[in-house]
Automatic annotation (TrEMBL):
Described function: Regulates the GDP/GTP exchange reaction of most RAB proteins by inhibiting the dissociation of GDP from them, and the subsequent binding of GTP.
Family: Belongs to the Rab GDI family.
Protein name (record): Guanosine nucleotide diphosphate dissociation inhibitor
One GO term (biological process): small GTPase-mediated signal transduction
Amino acid sequence: MDEEYDVIVLGTGLKECILSGLLSVDGLKVLHMDRNDYYGGESTSLNLVQLWKRFGKEDTPPERLGLSKEYNVDMVPKFMMANGALIRVLIHTNVTKYLNFKAVDGGFVYSKGKTHKVPATDVEALKSPLMGLFEKRRARKFFIYVQDYDESDPKSHEGLDLNKVTARDVLSKYGLEDNTVDFIGHALALYRDDSYLDQPATDFVKRIKIYAESLARFQGGSPFIYPLYGLGELPQGFARLSAVYGGTYMLNKPECKVEFDENGKAIGVTSEGETAKCKKVVCDPSYLPEKAKKVGRVARAICIMNHPIPNTNDSHSVQIILPQKQLQRKSDMYVFCCSYSHNVAPKGKFIAFVSTEAETDQPEVELKPGMDILGPVEETFFEIYDRFEPTNQNEDDGCFVSTSYDATTHFESTVIDVLSMYTKITGKEVDLTVDLSAASATE
């Protein structure tokens, strides 16, 4: 391989595929390699037989579960915010033409032992059983403030400079109770812990606005959308994009060893005795474990069921967030459910995931609060996997290592990582001010 590439990307996880697409569109010469013979890496989708194999089950899946090929079980299940960053990236790159999306039926939050729909507007706040009468009125005023807030219009600020006051200050101005603060922070603004309360309130208010705008886009029961046939379609969509702009893809390349010069800078990648030269390397932590450190673990259960989750209005697709305080834990728990309505399972079958940041070595015990709200389950698979973050200095070694996928069931944190890597590689920012009406591929 005598050619020199601007960037060699290792691994076809979703983050790596999005980056390779964005860099190819930018005119960079990209070679994309993977040691596996399939797309998706850690974020692949499996059929039933593959799922059985992955979890080391000896026998074959029982016939009552239906045909293996009708299953597309995501290994990193996440919904997309209809107005969020990933949709903007998809429209910016025109990858929407390779995919079909469908709205997700419901967004719910667990509070005081029960599952409730997440109220995201002043109208929903007044109907919500999450709050008593007086609290509903206070919440309604808060939601009206957020809906009307416009950065460029001081009249809408109600005397609050969101760059100076904290989220806690804004919430206390409306006198909201702890349980209300809990669902607003974790189920609407989608924070993973309570540290946001003492940060400037700008990000907090923006996040709630994105949730409410996403909810309004499809007039559905949730702000989320999800591709038909699961997330396995996404890496392939970005791979096609990269190929259209001259990117080269090679699957099934064993080893993929990154080569460094005497100063420790990446200069190429060797596989099967051949070295491809490059200026920069992008990869997931499994390709350069010496440049990453373990920062936590995710505990997860994958469940196959023959019914929707109880108390979710018979939703065929749903996200439920169980805030940490409600469970006396240090981290939130997430329930993701999808079904045959998104073509990820045979008719009548539902796939639910329960995930959280692991705090013990016993996922069965730790995930019990989330499992308890699912109702009867036909098959369950438990696992714990490590999460890694890069430790290297990009400018010194020319290596850009992604962070592992977290326990959240939405894509906001994933896209933040991708966009930050893109900026480090190119020195530019992706323009996400796109016309969202262009997302006509969405049902």
